[in-house]
Amino acid sequence: MPRRRLLLAAPAILVAPAVRAQGAWPSRPVRILNPYAPGGTSDIVIRYLAAGMERAFGQPFIVENRPGAGGAVGTAAAAAAAPDGHTLLITNTGPLAVSVSMTPAPNYDPQRSFSYVTLFGGAPILCAVKGDGPIRSMADYKAAAAVRRDAVTFGSSGVGSVGHLAGMLWAQEAGVELLHVPFRGAADAQQSVLGSNTVSLWDTLAAHAGGVRGGGIRGLAVTSETRVGAVPEVPTIVEAGFPGAVASNWFLLAGPAGLPAEIVERLRQHLAAAMAEPAARERWAGIGMVSLGSPTPAEIAGFVAREAARWAPVVRASATG
What are the alphabetically sorted keywords of the record (predicted)? Predict the structure, then answer.
């Protein structure tokens, strides 16, 4: 090749790999929006997995907490992001299956605004009180609430959270009225109980299992049909005599609608392997998380739709009750 032609061709040879590299994913840090305050179950799950994602994909995976409106604020922010794989979302039952019934026109549509990636699992709700307080059982709890309307306060991770709805569901079945006190996250709700500012909390077990084991808070019941290995001493809501209050909170990873299929598949494969590791399984068991299988993105969308239909009448009853 003549020297002139070689020199003209050289820039193309050098530039092409750089152009391909710019189109690879991830080409910069990835932020994972968590629509709840630090310390909750979503935080526990995603921060544990983020370190492995960084190693696997070669870029920082930064968890960004965006609490507010029971998780709807951060969830809406993720829906509005560019679908290039550099903004992901960990969210749960509240924003996707409860808030849509509580808010006439939310800034996102669970069926159209997201590309679903992975369903991490589910966890029951815990009803708990201060460890050294006088309430020692769900029977005591019901008796305290029956003294007068709103005599018993309960904290949750926010209006529209599954903890909020589970507490209201139990109150309906028990024939009493509780006073809901919403917090920005699980840690704030637990601190309020420890400080005797609220009587109780209804929130995802995973965020409070350590508090129960440490004795700071006393678990009165978990909203599952069978006892949970993380806190085997805590009776189920069925054992306590309230089978109509069975409920669970589930957690998933998503991105904005239009996330490229190859990115979804890379994330799914990595997370499936990471969650199957013995250390991860031990961690999930320790916080009361249970597997909900390995549904495809389309199956996750169907699951979310069914859960929204299930919670809609509970939301309506809570609003009118």
Answer: Signal
